[in-house]
Specification:
Elements (H helix, E strand, L loop, with lengths): L1 H11 L18 H16 L4 E3 L5 E5 L8 E7 L12 H16 L8 E6 L12 H7 L4 H4 L10 H7 L14 E9 L4 H5 L3 E7 L2 E9 L3 E2 L11 H19 L2 E10 L5 E2 L2 E9 L3 H22 L2 E10 L2 E2 L2 H11 L3 E4 L4 H7 L4 E6 L15 H18 L5
Parallel strand pairs: 3-4, 3-5, 5-15, 6-14
Antiparallel strand pairs: 1-2, 2-4, 6-13, 6-15, 7-11, 7-12, 8-10, 9-11
Helix pairs in contact: 1-3, 3-12, 8-9
């Protein structure tokens, strides 16, 4: 099994990787992500599994087990990345699912219920701004009528991107009706396991989080001839808002990040007319998140009034708090005596949990604690420990068809 896992990792390592930065750009429905989905089909075929691909690119393959009619256990993750992302966020869960199936077969396990290996598309929301879009569509959390209006940074509509990848939403979406439980393995995006000195953990909850678009509008003008006191500069309002967000998040021990910005007309010698910025905010409770975002918006609006600019705030993608199935987590914690920890990162597991599917997550230690960056990492020994842990979990969950 180590050779199989490491060979799979070597196969995926070059796909979508920047030669200059070492970061990954596996944008949904673009060539690198399509290549990875083709790789998944081939990896499943080697194992005698047939992949079903839905109309938007979600994929699943089933090992039917002794009773194909019993509720199945689905595992897997995603293959897309953030811009200049790391290698492990998403693909580790898919590779580990395939390797765990190999472990179970090597052990001579015949599951009493089906085991599915799945890949959800556009988990990161890096292209169309909706995190976990594939799983949201599959669960009905987002409708196709709403999603079809989404556009990427280049103005490409979602249906056109999907069509360019040879897919057709009219073929329908992934059927989750046969999924009785979902287990997602993921690299940890933080340092909890590092601090505990353990390789593997389970998730207790996902913090509520979301993305808000802030549109700061002002007046374009000449950078040289316009006196400072005569300006209506939205960049000033934006700059103050960034500082306010940082301060409010620190005071509340929560999270607030402005990581993306667009400026018009974007000229060196022009006062901008419009600054559009995206806030990513996360907090330990729904109320704390609402308070944090509300305070940031209040301070931004106050500053806009003093700067002679205007502010419009749009919630683009908001996910409430997720408490994973406590009974399931307790059951699985007993399998390997793993710690149960919270995560501040969003995952497809949170969407399936919100749809009423009992859900658990397995985390693999990240020694750098860094994620969404080329520095994201997991040691091979820890990855293999994660594979064994996932195999143990799947064996436990499929031992009895009842």
């Amino acid at each position: 099994m180590p050779d199989d896992f490491e060979q799979m990792w070597r196969d995926l390592a070059p796909v979508g990787r920047s030669a200059s930065s070492g970061g990954y750009n596996r944008s949904p429905w673009d060539s690198a992500e399509v290549e990875l989905r083709d790789w998944f089909v081939e990896a499943c075929a080697v194992r005698g599994l047939t992949v079903e691909t839905d109309g938007v690119g979600n994929q699943v393959a089933w090992w039917e087990g002794a009773d194909p009619q019993a509720p199945g256990v689905l595992t897997g993750s995603h293959l897309d990345s953030v811009l200049e992302g790391g290698a492990y966020d998403g693909p580790l869960g898919v590779l580990s699912a395939l390797a765990a199936l190999d472990v179970l077969r090597a052990r001579g396990v015949e599951p009493a219920r089906p085991i599915g290996i799945g890949v959800f598309v556009e988990e990161e929301g890096s292209r169309f701004g909706r995190a976990c879009l594939g799983s949201r569509l599959a669960t009905g959390a987002t409708t196709w009528d709403a999603a079809r209006e989404l556009r990427d940074r280049d103005g490409v509509f979602l249906p056109d991107a999907i069509d360019s990848a040879g897919l057709d939403p009219a073929r329908g979406l992934m059927d989750l009706g046969r999924v009785g439980t979902f287990v997602e393995l993921h690299v940890e995006q933080g340092r909890d396991l590092v601090d505990r000195g353990v390789a593997v953990g389970l998730a207790s909850e996902i913090w509520p989080h979301g993305r808000w678009r802030f549109d700061f509008a002002g007046q374009a003008n000449h950078a040289g001839t316009t006196r400072m006191e005569d300006r209506r500069d939205p960049m000033l309002t934006y700059a103050m808002t960034v500082l306010a967000a940082n301060k409010q998040a620190r005071l509340a021990t929560q999270r607030a990040t402005f990581g993306r910005i667009a400026v018009e007309p974007n000229g060196t010698n022009a006062v901008p007319s419009l600054v559009t910025a995206w806030l990513d905010a996360r907090a330990s409770s729904d109320d704390a998140l609402a308070t944090l975002v509300g305070e940031i918006e209040r301070q931004a609006a106050d500053r806009a009034g003093r700067d002679g600019t205007t502010l419009a705030v749009t919630a683009e993608s908001v996910s409430g708090s997720v408490a994973f199935d406590a009974d399931l987590a307790a059951r699985l914690a007993g399998v390997g005596d793993w710690p149960v920890i919270a995560t501040q990162a969003g995952h497809d597991a949170g969407i399936l949990s919100g749809a009423g599917i009992p859900t658990a997550m397995v985390f693999v230690r990240n020694p750098t604690g860094v994620s969404h960056s080329p520095e994201e990492h997991a040691e091979t020994a820890d990855c293999l420990a994660g594979v064994e842990a996932l195999a143990d979990v799947l064996a436990e969950l499929t031992a009895d068809p009842a």
